[in-house]
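Hi Q.,

Before the meeting this afternoon, I wanted you to have the guanosine-5'-diphosphate prediction in hand. No need to reply - just skim if you have a minute. The sequence and ligand are here:
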Amino acid sequence: MSKNTDPHNNSSSKVPSSTNKQAIGVFKKNQQKNVSVQHIFNAIIAKDTTSLSRGITLIESTQQTHFKKAQQLIEKCLPYTNNSIRIGITGVPGVGKSTFIEALGNVLIEQGKKVAVLAVDPSSTISKGSILGDKTRMESLVRSPKAFIRPSPSGNSLGGVAQKTRESIILCEAAGYDVIIIETVGVGQSETAVHSMVDFFLLLKLAGAGDELQGIKRGIIEMADAIVINKADGDNLNRAKEAKNQFRKALHLYPLAESSWSPEVMVCSALKNTGIQEIWKLIQKYLEVTHKNGFFEENRKQQNKFWLVQTIEEQLKTSFYNHPAIQSELDSQIELVLQHKITPFAAARYLLNLSKKS
Ligand SMILES: Nc1nc2c(ncn2[C@@H]2O[C@H](COP(=O)(O)OP(=O)(O)O)[C@@H](O)[C@H]2O)c(=O)[nH]1
Ligand SMILES: [Mg+2]
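Predicted structure with the ligand bound:
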């Protein structure tokens, strides 16, 4: 606590009596704003969602003072983590992710579980929206005291946004959420980022016009623990079943994953609430298999290692580009390279050396 806001600090008693009331008012206001990390932590552990939101806001903040507080908060929460199931959901906009999360979330809540939903949406800065902006699709989850829904943070880089989500998971776990669902749209590398922070990765698809694997990034298929064809209802039901068979055949061509889990293909209707229970059973089966063969634990360890390296790279990049010398020299070096006066490598070396000088 800083000197000015410390109630035990003698200097506060030196405030002239005429301004005493005012000073106390200001003090109270500041105190509200600057709630201590310990206070937020205690409330998070006590399952207070307002404080959980406040903690995540600290994590998402770009202010240096908030950054320090956020790191202290995360450290305090760490011993209370690692006891949730983390599920990643990806798919193109409109495939039904939000509707699906609502349906799955309700199944979990009925079983007495608490569910948190977070989002990694690298496009939200451009669209100024969020994939969770359409909270109407999650109406009953939004209303449930057992669910916590947090829209995507905005940020300049996917790495930054993803890291904040990764840290937010820690707070959600400390607040006692049993299942954490991370939603992402298939933009850029966001699937890779989400894949590296979840235990189970689910790809939502629509039945196409036959050639099911067309237009899917190979990497996503390799990451998926399940492919679920949504909107298997009405006229679409048969096409969805056909698509399922095609995917099943295609998946046989892929080598067995490290988890030794063979990805499953299923159909569901998030809207009509069919097939959702089966998908939850599948996820439980996956957990059983991977707990037994040790992959679950090993995967989380590897993910921690990944985030360590990722964070270093992100921080190095940020501090490099924020370095005053780099900010004043970068453009002229680029110009020299464009004019063929120096090579890109020489320019890079020069700038890197420059950034090392304080
Ligand atoms: N028929 C049908 N429509 C669905 C289903 N799931 C979602 N939708 C509709 O598809 C549209 C997009 O859903 P949404 O959940 O917002 O997709 P997201 O962009 O992937 O989050 C909405 O109009 C939903 O009502 C489904 O299982 N069947
Ligand atoms: Mg959505």
